Amino acid sequence: MTQVLAGKVAVVTGGSSGIGLAIAQRYAAEGARVFVTGRRQEVLDAAVAQIDGDVTGVRADSASAADIEALYAQVRDAAGRIDVLVANAGGGSFAPLGQITEQQYRETFDSNVLGTLLTVQGALPLLVDGASVVLLSSTTSALGGAAFSVYAASKAAIRNFARSWALDLKDRAIRVNALAPGPTHTPGVVGLVPEGQYQGLHDALVAEVPLGRVADPSEIAGAALFLASPDASFVNGIELFADGGQAQV
């Protein structure tokens, strides 16, 4: 069977756990040479050990211009180009209006918005014409969320990045799409609530999804593979919801 990404070079940020790790695993399984980043070296090393294929782990904080520059220097020296870029690194935390702090705002927007900007802008010299760029959004970009407004606003920004950058990069035929996962069982989601309280959050999320369950990270990776593949050659500037219907009904 032909591997969909055979001979391609892919970079996946925030790939040390959850959705990012699942995407890196799927891309590697489909033949890509994958560079994956994470902020904590020991967690990154453990993730790389879980990826079968041609994979390189690079410790980098996507919100750090210096780290991103070092990442792309390594990619340039080792591979010389990027065919697929997945800006996945990011996160968020709960805080209702009235309790939002400047620190929470800055941490969320630095991680999700600034990190995505630095990741894509820094990759431009290495992205081949016709490359695919996938930005990780969220159903909160369309739905909002109680006590989750800062995170939701950051993901709405990601959605508009995809629209705008598809236009900025049209002369190079680089496709830029946003991927919006619904509730997904990841360490990041589990960590949103204090230890021992995840079941309550899980049940509340399941109640919002017409399919009656949360996603496995591998299901989001399948959508990310589609956006990176030749099957999506005329898909550009969209927000693809992989959400079990949460934001659709």
Provide a compact summary of the structure.
By secondary structure, the protein is α/β, with parallel strands linked by helices. The protein is built from nine helices and seven strands, in the order E-H-E-H-E-H-E-H-E-H-H-E-H-H-H-E.
Describe the structure.
This protein is an alpha/beta fold and about 250 residues long. The protein has one domain: NAD(P)-binding Rossmann-like Domain (Rossmann fold, 3-Layer(aba) Sandwich). Helices cover about 45% and strands about 15% of the residues. The protein has helices at about 20-30, 40-50, 65-80, 100-125, 140-145, 150-170, 185-190, 200-205, 215-230; strands spanning about 10, 35-40, 55-60, 80-85, 125-135, 175-180, 240. The protein has a 7-stranded parallel sheet, sandwiched between helices. Helix 4 (about 100-125) packs parallel to helix 6. The model has no long low-confidence stretch (mean pLDDT about 95).
Q: Give me the CATH architecture, please.
A: 3-Layer(aba) Sandwich
Main sheet strand line-up? 3-2-1-4-5-6-7
Distance between the termini: 37 Å
What kind of sheet is the major sheet?
7 strands, parallel
Count the beta strands: 7
From the spread of the alpha carbons, the general shape counts as globular
- Name the CATH superfamily classification: NAD(P)-binding Rossmann-like Domain
| Rg calculated over all Cα atoms | 17 Å
Helix proportion range: 40-55%
Structural class based on helices, strands and sheet pairing: alpha/beta
Using the coordinates above, name the CATH class.
Alpha Beta
CATH topology grouping: Rossmann fold
Indicate the mean pLDDT: 97
Q: Low-confidence parts, pLDDT < 50 over ≥5 residues?
A: none
Number of domains: 1
Q: Report strand %.
A: 15-25%
Q: What string gives the helices and strands in order?
A: EHEHEHEHEHHEHHHE
